């Protein structure tokens, strides 16, 4: 083992330890890029994987994947050419009408997304769009609660990937729709908070079409040996800008073709 390899592995482990403690204690930490010598996306995913295995050993159950950085503008801002991904956990899954405990989050933001539920395993890293479409059981309206353990949302690529793609939780609607009944590219979306419109968007804002994002994820997860499976939830990426959430907020997400999705943040 060379000293360079040893140094990199130590940096990955140290970063993983810092993030695991932050998530366990629900406390923010300074940006990883300023503290650990992580060599880009590969090291950041290594950090994410270490903590994913830790959480699973502690009994947490993964239920799907989220896609981040689906906006071309955000990709250019951070200096990347493709999205990133993270784990969705069962204990942070919510549904329409739920009130979320504010104390479970650090600095939550919300974004409206299309969720896909996968109907069969997708092990082929070269899967074509037609095969993906046939494998999607149905779509649901969703809101992702993104939440960073990095202080003041001061993130760059390695920070967000290492921190599970800044995943917090997610809320799903309860009205499934077959995707051939929806115009996922041109569907409008809006998020209202406390009665005022806070964010608007459209399906095309997500890599041109939410299915493009889902296809990227299906290929990527097969490529890294963790293919999407039957029943997995896929959050395909934001349809509009992020919205900060505060204690006591009541939010309504509306996506054309679906019934509205409502949730609240408690005031405690």
UniProtKB/TrEMBL annotation:
PANTHER family: 2-KETO-4-PENTENOATE HYDRATASE (PTHR30143:SF0), ACID HYDRATASE (PTHR30143). The keyword Isomerase does not apply. This is 2-oxopent-4-enoate hydratase. Pfam families: FAA_hydrolase. SUPFAM superfamilies: FAH. One of its GO terms (cellular component) is cytoplasm. GO terms for molecular function: 2-oxopent-4-enoate hydratase activity. Keywords: Lyase, Plasmid. Residues 83-262 form the Fumarylacetoacetase-like C-terminal domain. The keyword Lyase applies. InterPro entries: Fumarylacetoacetase-like_C, Fumarylacetoacetase_C_sf, Hydratase-Decarb/MhpD_sf.
